[in-house]
Amino acid sequence: MDLPTLWFFIVGFFFVGYFVLDGFDFGVGMSLPFLGRDDTDRRVLINTIGPVWDLNETWVIVAGAAMFAAFPEWYATLFSGFYLPLLLILLALIARGVSFEYRHQRPEASWKRRFDLMITVGSAVPAFLWGVAFANIVQGVPLDANHDFTGSLLTLLNPYGLLGGLTTLLLFFTHGVVFVALKTDGEIRGRARRLATRAGIVTIVVAAAFLVWTSAAHGTPAGIALAGAAAVALVLAVLSNAAGREGWAFALMAATIAFAVLSLFLSLFPNVMPASNDPANTLTIANASSSGYTLSIMSWVALVFLPLILGYQAWTYWIFRKRVTRAHIGEPQSTGVAGAQPDGAH
Fold this sequence. Notes:
mainly alpha, 15 helices
């Protein structure tokens, strides 16, 4: 395997990590209106991801940096052509992060409701738009001879792209609700398990339609095999959740997302940005990559630092592995009261 191909799959690995980890963050945020019956419930939900949500988001920064360094042509075409949806994703992530830190700063219910809404919207928008973006990358977009995107936002909102967005939205929602069931106890755990089962059934239908469309129109043998593995893992995740095996359900949901993202990358390979109007304008691994010297240096850096990053991430999850309950949160308290625990506290 040559270095450009290796870095194509390393970029894919970073996106897999981002969608698996920040995916359940998005799902927890979207679950607030469904599982948060009062402020204490909502604080429980937010505190399930409080120690890890910002660490999970760094995966997309690393993925973008790796793409910029390894495939500058791909990065330039993607981030300029998809500027508006990526800007909306960025604004949504900012609104969500601000809300985690600010919702507890004042005791008024109206203040907290506004920030809860920002958390929900700030989770749903990226969950949907990332699916739209990757579906269009796999399907191909109009590019000119300079590899510049010649379409508009409406070009991206085509039936296949919208189905891709709906698929990631539902996958992340189910993933997040399963995580809530894994990380909580008592009544909220039971509600989360029931909601995950209902959401999982809808997700199976929508995800199956998207994977079948992808396999039929853009699939490769390896991509189709991984799509099938994703479908099996999703069904098993829903069954495990219904049986009360939250740990297995969460692991299988993570496998579902990982297999699905890898299947998209294999369906894309060896292209990185297909041109739907003229195949001659397609960006490939070969014509979009950096020099061999650059990729060689990056490989040594990745060899040293990637194990450290993975080790730190695993250590963080191990330290904060215990369940969050209403008893741990306590009754809502005004800002500044001794013993008050802020939402999203580390």
